[in-house]
Amino acid sequence: MKKAKEILQRSDCPISYTLDFFGDKWTLLILRDMMFDGKTSYGEFLQSKEKIATNILADRLGALESNGFVSKTVSPENKSKFVYTLTEKGIALLPVILEMTIWGSKFSPAGGNKELLKVLKSDKEKTIKDFTKLLKKRIQA
Amino acid sequence: MKKAKEILQRSDCPISYTLDFFGDKWTLLILRDMMFDGKTSYGEFLQSKEKIATNILADRLGALESNGFVSKTVSPENKSKFVYTLTEKGIALLPVILEMTIWGSKFSPAGGNKELLKVLKSDKEKTIKDFTKLLKKRIQA
DNA sequence: CCGCATCCCTATAGATACTG
DNA sequence: CAGTATCTATAGGGATGCGG
After folding, report:
1. Is B5 a member of any domain?
2. Residue from B32, B102, B96 nearest B64 by CA
3. Per-residue pLDDT tens for B31-65?
4. Type and span of the H or E element at B113
5. Which of A96, A122, A124, B119 minimizes the number of CB atoms within 10 Å of its CB?
6. Is residue B6 part of a domain?
7. What percent of chain A has pLDDT over 90?
8. Is there a domain that residue A80 lies in?
């Protein structure tokens, strides 16, 4: 039995609310892996370059699931494996993540995703819309 | 003497880089107060409804300053008071914060800023551009 | 062995009281 | 006004466990 670790809302401010849940260093990285790399399993998340600890990963996946950002199902191929997929509520975070990508690409010493930046620059709104559509399609299959 | 608390970069990923610095529950709220409420002083930040602790505020202001997101100057009116203002690097985070506002407004039980949402919906890119211009003007005065 | 969870211990975040 | 000091709670790293 898992306790659902509810979100404690500090104020009515929408920014504050967003940070109440996503204001940590790991949660959005999991969503990134799902959105951009199509990852769906615990093991795949573990392999990301930032090296998330197993307990943190389990905790965040649980929180994401119990708050409706991802759904957890048993893998059809492997009964002892779980598949995590984005919900629409999770997909709705794409614009936030993309803006973070843009900002990070501009200011990180490591540079950023030049390809993505070029596409975004030409028509950001369209890119967001199209990518959202793609993600939604992916979860229907 | 203050240690500059450098950012430890977990990977080359721009999203990860953004989270390395802004992946906490308070830093962006300070920027929110500066952007949307025009706050400029320690005392004003303390009064926000989320009730930030004094040591956290001091810590975050120090980090924001030493990393070039805000600048700290002595108040012209009151020599024993400091004035914090956004830099261009800080202003560049506006799109991220606005997307968080949009997301939070959509999903927070408390609802959100309906006015802002309406404006953003009609032309998001223009709104961001105009507001950025306003913020830049503000720091030149 | 792999996928996932738990335990333990340290480091950091954060609340409250206090100070130059 | 603008912080520090001190103390406690929580996040997080690494090892370990356990079932297939």
Report:
1. no
2. B32
3. 999 999 999 999 999 999 999 999 999 999 999 99
4. none
5. A122
6. no
7. 77
8. yes
